[in-house]
Amino acid sequence: MLRSRQASSADGVFDGSADVHGSGRELHFRPRTVIFLQGDEARSIFQVIDGAVMLYRLLPDGRRQLVELLTANGLFGWAPLRYRDCAAETLLATRCLELDRDLVDRSPALAQRLGAQLVAQLCALHEHVTLLGRKSAPERVASFLMRYIPDRGHEGCPGPRDGDDCAHFRLTLLRQEIADYLGLTIETVSRLLTSLKRRGVVRMDGLEEMVVDDVCRLCRLTGTHLNLGQWCSAHTDEAR
Amino acid sequence: MLRSRQASSADGVFDGSADVHGSGRELHFRPRTVIFLQGDEARSIFQVIDGAVMLYRLLPDGRRQLVELLTANGLFGWAPLRYRDCAAETLLATRCLELDRDLVDRSPALAQRLGAQLVAQLCALHEHVTLLGRKSAPERVASFLMRYIPDRGHEGCPGPRDGDDCAHFRLTLLRQEIADYLGLTIETVSRLLTSLKRRGVVRMDGLEEMVVDDVCRLCRLTGTHLNLGQWCSAHTDEAR
DNA sequence: CGGAAGGTTGAGGAACCTCAAGCATGGTGG
DNA sequence: CCACCATGCTTGAGGTTCCTCAACCTTCCG
């Protein structure tokens, strides 16, 4: 895990802003820009318009845990107390809406609109807690990759397409960040990605571009599905 | 971890109910009563009035993870999709308010009132994710015990009282449940509690009654605080 | 071409899990 | 009242998984 690196706001550069229909301010951030740090005073909340943001917490000895990965509509910066409970940093060029806390406190309509999103994030955290508490390292890595294939592997998954069940995407996290998200070390993540590559589950082009030729096979490695039953009953797959 | 035990609704007994000011129904549950199961249809949400509720998710092979421990005001049963993402079971005799989903959807004022609570639970999950991803087993157990001393160990902790810095409480979870909450096995939890006992950090009366004579010492074992600085700078403490 | 940043690979060890046995506690029935 | 059983907890020995430490590789960029 990452130790004793405290990101500073000067790492990235804030990029622009504009007022938006009185209910917030639109902010533009470059990739790898710190939006706020754990312990900062929490005067406003943010919603991602587009791009990607990671939230992380640091223990005092430098251990880091990424607690949420957010894309469009993701809410962050909400604090029950006076201070931010985690830091927020962009992964990509990102636009956010910044809303004053007391604005939200005074607008039930706004609160309601945000409520549904909050619930979605709560359930995503339930799933992540399950991953961290009860999944093996190979299952964690497979689950992480499945995040990038959002229409698959959940309630309403259409199952594999005949013939061509592939997906490709770009990893937006560095190995260290993947490790800090999955509660592993960078070496373990690297070894397991190599293992997936060697076994032909994924192909990689450079460090970021991933191609999955058989999504269903990857999905069977996540631990969230019985390896018999459902779509994939025919082929049983090794866990490593 | 618990394997292949599927709690049935018949385990516990629903105990009574009453309508409450038109905005919900008050339900009474005995200890160890299943309120709903993972996968049940989600027509309503619940708020704890008093008592205690645990939420847990099961992986298909029987691994279990407790995702939230709720007491008064805790919200649960919110689902972004049609089905419950986790099961809910009482730990103690518990009163809950049950609210229809569409009632909440139609009442911004209600949604706003619940929003603040939702945010508090989101932050609690951030902390729990950090525990599961980055803390050692001894740190997890110490952190778990500190949950029962709510006014200590957080922002605004008054520090140790002179002379007498003790606390006592009753564990509401079985060893297996503690293990499933902390992402450990029952044996590890047992060994670490024994170790805390042997070292004089806690005393136990039976399996449930806990006495902590030096709260600050326990707190220094959680990993969330620097072991030097703050109140407790004088005494450095072993990690095990 | 050289350096920096990020990633991979290997050897060895620590932490935690698994399996197996034995110990408390509390309730039940003879 | 006490034997008996069930449930839950503790303890120990041994094994697996993942981490640590260290070296080396790859890519990018000036």
Summarize the structure.
The structure is a homodimer of 240-residue chains. Helix content of chain A is 29%, strand content 25%.
Description of the structure:
Two copies of one chain form a homodimer. Chain A is an alpha+beta fold. Helices cover 29% and strands 25% of the residues of chain A. The first copy, chain A, has helices at 101-106, 108-134, 137-146, 175-182, 186-198, 215-219, and strands at residues 14-20, 24-29, 34-36, 44-50, 53-58, 64-70, 75-76, 87-90, 94-100, 167-170, 202-205, 209-212. Chain A has a five-stranded antiparallel β-sheet. In chain A, α4 (175-182) crosses α5.
Overall geometric form of chain A = globular
Please mark out the parts of chain A with pLDDT under 50 across 5 or more consecutive residues, or reply none. Answer: 1-12, 229-240
Which sheet architecture does the biggest sheet of chain A show?
5 strands, antiparallel
Structural class of chain A: alpha+beta
Radius of gyration of chain A: 19 Å
Helical segment tally of chain A? 6
Strand adjacency order, main sheet of chain A: 1-2-9-4-7
- Range of helix content of chain A: 25-40%
**Average pLDDT metric of chain A:** 86
Distance between the termini of chain A: 23 Å
Oligomer: homodimer
| H-E string of chain A | EEEEEEEEEHHHEHHEEH
Q: Which pair of chains forms the biggest interface, and how many residues does each contribute?
A: A-B, 53 and 53 residues
Q: What is the number of beta strands of chain A?
A: 12
Per DSSP, what share of the residues of chain A sits in E-state strands of 2 or more residues?
A: 25-35%
